[in-house]
Amino acid sequence: MTSATALSWFARHELRLAWREWLAMMTGQRKRKRAAVIGLIAFAALLHLPAWAVIGRFADLRLPLDKSELIVISATIVLAWSLMLSQAIESVTRVFYTRADLDLIMSSPATLANLFSVRIAAIALAITVMALLFSTPFVDVLVIGGGARWLAAFGVVVAMGLSAAAVAIAITILLFRLIGPARTRFIAQILAAIIGAGFVIALQIAAIISYGTLSRFAMLTSDTAAAYAPEADSIFWWPARATMGDGEALALLLALGLVMLGSVMALFSGRFADTAIDAAAHGTSGRRTARERPFRAGSRAHALRRKEFLLLWRDPWLISQTLMQLLYLVPPALLLWRSFADSSAALMLITPVIVMAAGQLAGGLAWLTISGEDAADLVATAPLSPSRIIRAKIEVVLIVIAAIFTPLVAALAFASPLQATITAGAIGVSAASATSIQLWFRVQARRSQFRRRQTSSRLATFAEAFSSIGWAATATLLLAMPAAGAISGLITAALIAATWKFSPRRE
Amino acid sequence: MVIRNAKQDGVAVMKPVSSALNVLGLTKRFDRLAVDSLDLTIHAGEFYALVGPNGAGKTTTLRMVAGLLRPDAGAVSIFGIDALADPVAAKQVMAWVSDEPMIYDKLTPLEYLEFVAGLWGIAPSVSEPAAQQLLSSLGLASHRHERCEGFSKGMRQKVALAGALVHDPRLIILDEPLTGLDAVSARHVKGLLAERVRTGCTVIMTTHILEVAERMADRIGVIASGRLVAEGTLSELRQQNGHTDTSLEDLFIALVTLEAAAA
Question: Is A382 an interface residue toward B (CB < 8 Å)?
């Protein structure tokens, strides 16, 4: 086999792996893949509706643009790029830590630098294709509303995907070199969370500090932002101009993306093998210790709760997810602090954010404690009834939620006791709903499979998301329009009941 | 003769209690019949080896005994306790070790043993010295403060075994406990099990390593197609098959070949 043939064979192999990983993630590893793919296509078609609501008003924009318009479009592109970078970091760490074919590749007679160049290209391709898929409804809306010139936006998405992959690979390999494989996985997780949420949160914080509102558009369209922004012919606006059909800017962006990816291949493909081997070796070489302390007395349920708390405390996945939730709580907390003295209507925006965060965090915690039991046989053969075991695990979820959200509710109580009471109730109901859904749809899994929890049951995932949104809306409406709040609460409760009806654990 | 579901002090009891494990008509069907009306009696203080080809129903049988699977039919009695009617009481006196050690990566061996002892309600004054002693005898004393995430398969299996022993069970059920262990680790495990049997504990173990069954077990049960096709001491098995000087391996192959032909 010639070198070129070997490389094309390896490229096909990489693409096949990437396709199957993606398919497994999207379909939850079900056998009826065709039905799952049709469902996904239907879902993508449905996404055109929210895309129209979000972006439809920009379809008529034409070059030249004023500064405010350039700022809004550029900020949207930066937001999308930061989300892509976040996903790319996740993908790169997943490839480093979970691909089990290193021995085979390393023992093959092919040139390793070439093989790993192909792997880097495959990662970039997977990230770009994913970005294209998610951006398609938005670009479609722009093309339908504003004409074919918006098709150039697909080119911008490709350039963004290539550059995001290049930066993600460079960041991950540099992290390996700086802090070692043991910490890289954890830090990369945190970094991905911060990058994914950071831009939006930073804009919100700026908007709160400057204008006392959570709306980032207030900040982006302000005179102050326009005053500090570069001139309209600056290279900073290339991405915005390329999106609107400027061929020269688009060509330059695509070239920049390719150069970045090529540079990463040239610089890192030789070291990719060492990095991957270090990552694979991590776990057999890591020796983390805990200090000795005497055994503690307590009931059996107490032993179970103590174990759950210890595992949650030592779980990097959970810490990064919690950090993500807490990051989203920073703007409302800031708003609360800023609006402490007055009875600003903006204060009401805090309630839905807190209630949604509580529901989402409770869902993640419940999966880890209920489904993610690494020693399921041990717990099942312990002399405790199954109901007692489940109760202890649920108690852990609710205690953690209470510990995280009580300070926020207490602070809110000083500003508005009624709002604090309603928020506290909604947090409890939202957390209980998410926990119940996880309980009804529980499947035995290892904690390390946490990433796959959202694909194990599509129904559970959507029900959990809609229940958090529903209770958040209910709490907000109860504050503003109690009758509408009651109706929203009834609808959300009906949704939970319907989820229970279709759940496998109904009996 | 077994009297089912007699109640004493709120605990479902089956009599007599001279046997450690009494299984009657145990049946389980998945896509096919996995365990077929199995009867099995294991005496207290006995080391019993259950051998059989892949898919014979060994693991399914033991998982039903341990309370991990609900049988379709049949009865399971552990030291006179009806394990189906009162699983909590039955679990209090037994321990289960599977071939794939299920421990927590983020806990140290000592923390794991503290958790197991807590689950079984053992006082720290009893469980802590027992845990330290077990880790020493399994060669894990120097690793007792390290998180299990970096442990080899053998070390993980020894931690799981220590967990099974820390609450001093009267019946230990092991499913292929020696899989993946090196010679030194396997000797540690075998030594510890033999010692437990000497102190009156009952051990039931499945294994593919027939030499282990031959050397350690008081009695051997051969299971095929979900049924017990032969049972006894090694010499009894030889007599049953008309070979006085043959190895367990030869006997095993003869028995399962016959069973396969009959099926």
Answer: yes
Q: What is the CA radius of gyration of chain B?
A: 19
Which of B185, B99, B180, B108 has the alpha carbon at shortest distance from B148? B108
pLDDT at A285: 47
Q: Verify whether the Cβ–Cβ distance A380 to B107 is below 8 Å.
A: no
Buried b (16+ CB within 10 A) or exposed e, B63-82: bbbbbbbebeebbbbbbbbb
CA atoms within 13 A on the CB side of B250: 8
Q: Is some CB atom of chain B closer than 8 A to the CB atom of A378? A: yes
Kindly report, as residue ranges, where domains of CATH 3.40.50.300 are found in chain B: 3-93+169-262
Calculate the CA A195 to chain-centre distance.
10
- Name which of A287, A377, A384, A448 to mutate to probe chain B: the one with the most chain B Cβ atoms within 10 A of its Cβ: A377
* A190 close to A288: Cβ distance less than 8 angstroms: no
Three-state DSSP class for B38?
strand
Q: How far apart are CA A273 and CA B217, in angstroms?
A: 49
Q: CB A287 to CB B146 under 8 A?
A: yes
ipTM score? 0.85
Contact B68 A290 (CB under 8 A): no
Which element (helix H / strand E) includes A487? helix A482-502
CA angle B134, B136, B138 (to 5 degrees): 70
Question: Higher-confidence residue: A287 or B52?
Answer: B52
Question: SS3 for A29?
Answer: coil
pLDDT tens across A261-277, in order? 889 888 877 777 677 66
CB pairs under 8 A between A and B: 116
Mind giving me the DSSP string for A221-244?
Answer: TSHHHHHHSPPTTSGGGHHHHHHT
Residue B165's pLDDT is 93
Question: Which pLDDT tens digit goes with each residue over A276-300?
Answer: 666 666 544 456 777 778 888 888 9
Specify the pLDDT at position B11: 47
The pLDDT mean for chain B works out to: 85
Of B95, B102, B118, the CB nearest to A376: B102
Structure tokens at A432: 């209980």
Q: Would you tell me how many other CB atoms lie within 10 Å of the CB of residue A132? A: 15
Residue A73 DSSP code = H
B44's CB contacts (< 8 A; 6+ apart) are B18, B19, B20, B79, B170, B200, B202
Q: What is the pLDDT of residues B156-202, one digit of tens each?
A: 999 999 999 999 999 999 998 888 788 888 888 888 899 999 999 99
* pLDDT score, position A282: 59
pLDDT at B68 over 80: yes
Cα distances (angstroms) measured from residue A272 to each of A16, A26, A167, A290, A314: 20, 28, 14, 33, 29
CB contact under 8 A, A374 and B116: no
Q: Please report, for residues A199, A232, B6, the alpha-carbon distance to residue A472 in angstroms, rounded to integers and kept in the order given.
A: 23, 41, 54
CATH number of B3-93+169-262: 3.40.50.300
CB contact under 8 A, A300 and B152: no
Residue ranges in chain A whose pLDDT is less than 50: 283-285, 507
Interface of B with A in 154-183 (CB under 8 A): 160, 163
- Return the bridge partners of A402, or none: none
List chain A residues with CB under 8 Å of B111: 290, 310
Return d(Cα B185, Cα B177) in angstroms, integer: 11
